[in-house]
Amino acid sequence: MSAAGLLKRVAQVLEDRGAAYGDPKTQMEAIARRWSITLGTPVTAQQVALCMIDLKLARLAHDPNYADGPIDVIGYAALIPEIIRGSRS
């Protein structure tokens, strides 16, 4: 897949996930609240996105041929500015 094709796929996945799960900032904040309780330390929505990227990178290290791995990494990275801004463009 070309870089342009990959980015188009990421955009489609983000759109699909937004339709399924709602606003990414709201979802990441909800996850951050849960992880904060689980870990006993404050977790931010941005940290959730970074941890999800790290999870996907660890999985890619195990299986670099997993096609959805780069899509997921790029997608979470693309959400970080939206989470910081608080609105989808």
Could you walk me through the main structural features you see in this protein, from its secondary elements to its overall organization?
With 89 residues, the chain is mostly helical. Helices cover 80% and strands 0% of the residues. The chain has four helices and no strands. The chain has helices at 3-21, 24-39, 45-62, 68-85. Helix 1 packs across helix 4 and helix 2 (24-39) crosses helix 3. It starts with a helix and ends with a helix.
Can you describe this structure in just a few lines?
The chain is mostly helical. It has helices at residues 3-21, 24-39, 45-62, 68-85.
N- and C-termini, Cα separation: 26 Å
Largest sheet: none
Computed Rg: 14 Å
Return the string of H and E elements.
HHHH
Computed structural class: mainly alpha
Question: SSE layout and pairings?
Answer:
Blueprint: H1 3-21, H2 24-39, H3 45-62, H4 68-85
Q: What would the keywords be for this entry?
A:
mainly alpha; single chain; 89 residues
